[in-house]
Amino acid sequence: MQIKFKKKKSKIEKSKLAKQFSYLRIISIIFFGIFIIIVGWTALYTQQTIQTATIQAQQIIIIKSELSIEPIDFEKFDLIQSSWNQKHTDSVPSITRNPFKKNKIPTTTTDLPPPAP
Question: Does a structural domain hold residue 110?
Fold first, then answer.
């Protein structure tokens, strides 16, 4: 039985290989983390979208079930409509005074002396 001895690698070669493997390990961990973040974000976005859609559908169903036809009281309707029409057919009183012309009404006097010209 003959045992074959492995050739021993020098310390320099081991350190180069160790650096390469450590870089690859770090890069693979970073990519795996990014992949997990993307998958998690996609799952949360999908869940939120589905939940929003179901809530909106439930609200529509509730609103449709609450709708009902209300009878119109035509007596009140006619009364309100006639009042509305009467309100808008009343004429606006005409303005008898022009605020842009000098006021011809005499003003009251005070105890103050007249202003100097």
Answer: no
